[in-house]
């Protein structure tokens, strides 16, 4: 009996373990289900399922901007599209019909500009930029003064360009905000360090901050050697500036030189070669040298002034270097800002069906460049494409050793055509192809 009881006891513990195991499985399923819900919600957010809807009658909505600019209406887009068709490079006598390819092209361009305008206003709001009515009035007055000679000319512009005064004011305000954003971003760019300034100076000391030795020289040029010898004979008696002016006018075949009494100022060695270089840079001032052969001419020369080489000190060059490096830093910082700006505001933009473009966060493209022909991606196109873009984004690696203080991004590696396949390269050579180093038979 004890044995049986023991057996029942042991067998009785079996269901307890199974119950606990089943409980753990149910708990795991519940937790797994909860995890799936969280993952789905995260996916939904990532895919934009929680994006705000576009109000009826509007084509786009941008979040985190002043309410009066958040929604772009269909009417505003139509007016902007008409302006695209009747002004600027797209100016046409008759606007394209809605639904045509040309109209769709202009509409996309207009919507792009409208969306970007809202983005700029939103960015200005985040940066605390405020524009007053007085600023708009002053800026508009300047624009009118520079572009419209009379009030009538401005009125004609409004009519022909399909602009209302309110729309003009908004564009002027937008222009001011854009300038203020650029100025603010420029302030945030890092200032060049003293090490950067020192390195730039050393790298460019000879090229930028050294004024080469130069000479002011009087010259008489003529293809006739006898004329140059006659000029020399006359100047040996009197080589005053007045005498040189007279001789140059009489004997020189170079009218420019003759009008200045033969005087050429600031001549440096790199612009001369051969005997003439020696005649000018190896002779003292006040000495007549020549006739010296130079290309087709014979030359009589006299050095009248020596200007020794001058090297700017670091202190003298520092303001220029800081300005140059500062502009480079601002440009790089602005480029980074623009990339972040585009990404941030696209995520905040949703467009209505039928109006989604690349600026919209809910835009889904096919991954093909817009300028690529559809035939590039068809298996058997009726009309083959003349050219297709590279399927891989090209890169421009930097040449080794070309990164310098003056060229922080270096020089791009030159792109060359792919060399022909050869047996030595390990690539397959097409049948009948002649290796580039082989000569045809009979030669």
Describe the structure.
The chain is α+β, with helices and mostly antiparallel strands and 443 residues long. Among the domains are: 22-51; 58-188, Triger factor/SurA peptide-binding fold; 215-311, Chitinase A, domain 3, CATH 3.10.50. It has 13 helices and nine strands. It has helices at 2-46, 67-70, 74-86, 101-126, 133-147, 151-161, 165-188, 194-208, 225-237, 241-251, 255-259, 274-281, 314-347; strands spanning 58-62, 71-73, 210-211, 214-222, 263-267, 288-294, 297-307, 310-311, 349-351. The chain has a four-stranded antiparallel beta sheet, sandwiched between helices. A hairpin with a 2-residue loop joins strand 6 (288-294) and strand 7 (297-307). Helix 5 packs across helix 7, helix 7 (165-188) crosses helix 13 and helix 9 runs antiparallel to helix 10. The protein starts with a helix and ends in a 92-residue tail after the last strand.
